């Protein structure tokens, strides 16, 4: 676990703490940031606990810092999930996917790999997904049946495990890491404990060997349930088992697996947390260069060895051809060379040279094989040069990042509490973002000479046109009406046009009729409403000069703006993050401004 839990970590956590989670009630839900949530759960015998969900790190009982106000997404989750009882929690097919079942039959699905995803289902159908996506083998979209990324449990029984390994074309260690979902560290641990060559190929193993591997995996699974955590500082690994493959004692041992996770989250190196994506990219590129250099040297050394022993290599090729004719594809020793096996489908035989698998083609001559080995060494040399060029380009990106950080940050103005724009005639138009700002906008900022605007839809935001010495024209009213309908639920519904109305401030009241109740952020409108029809749902994002700063403004598409750069948007299927990325590049402003 390097701030990202593995399938084994999830297996351990769920099996150790299942009894603490099941039959608990979900109370409040907090959104810590875009990828992290706290589900406050309660049961009379264990009291309140913070169930921390990080879509990029994992799950634990961890009290992360909570925001002062609940986000819109947190409020949606509270409405859907609060007071629901958890009847089950399970890991789906030994994958990095967790399913939490509620007494209502609803399910919370946590896909904790890649960028992560949080999905809600009812009767097996998706009703919410943070990231809607169409994959090659499944579709994550509202209304679709939920299908997990892995349809079988690779460790369910020996027959399933055997089938997965035998169908793999990768080495044993890679197969265990990816196809059996163990991850690299645990896959290597399994084979280390068995003193088994991790580069073995599936076709080189019989049922006896496979059964040994399967049994050792089950030993490790059992060890992971001992409710301990072992921390290895240099490798930055927290594990529910002792990693014998590291050949040393752990730097820290915790008598409770969750205590280990909490300590790790609290004490993870700050410099690692604060590294930018480009700095991490340089580190990755440097590691790649080291690996490429090692491989280039090994292939060059092996090529020279073959070059000095051409007659012997020709004889080896003949021996391999003879074995292929006889159907003998097993490995054998040839002098000081260890042949791991023969693959007739690819017409190759594999040699273990300094713990690197090198393939030779038994249909080619010794000279051609030697050329191929040297060409591979040359390829790695080219990769090194390419990676070095990439590092230089990445360093330029770091300089740009630092320049952006050092740029003078602009102040945030009072009106940015609301949605806002300046009309073509210069009037400020303000619109609420939620019930709280709807209430505040009308009570604090609407004056007698202003105009109140509202889309002809329930739950639309209150919108106010300010008359700060600039008369409110019909053009400005039309723009404000278009803004109001664009900021309503008509936009996510994908409607192409809508209707709004405007009234004077003295027609807006908080006093309900007898027997009625007015909720926070809502208002009673009395008297004639002036309707504006056929308003297009289209907005324009442009850069305007306000005081000494260039700031982005979102306004109706019809608004006249003095700006060299602008982008028009309409309701569609583009993901929000993708749209933000494109717009920020076009306008050349930071993403958070958009």
From TrEMBL:
GO molecular function: ribosomal large subunit binding; tRNA binding
Record bears the keyword DNA repair: no
Pfam families (UniProt xref): NFACT-R_1 (PF05670), NFACT_N (PF05833)
Gene Ontology cellular component terms for the protein in this record: RQC complex
Alphabetical list of PANTHER family matching this protein: NUCLEAR EXPORT MEDIATOR FACTOR NEMF, RIBOSOME QUALITY CONTROL COMPLEX SUBUNIT NEMF
NCBIfam families to which the protein is assigned, alphabetical: RqcH_arch
Name of the featured protein: NFACT RNA-binding domain-containing protein
Source organism of this protein record: Acidiplasma aeolicum
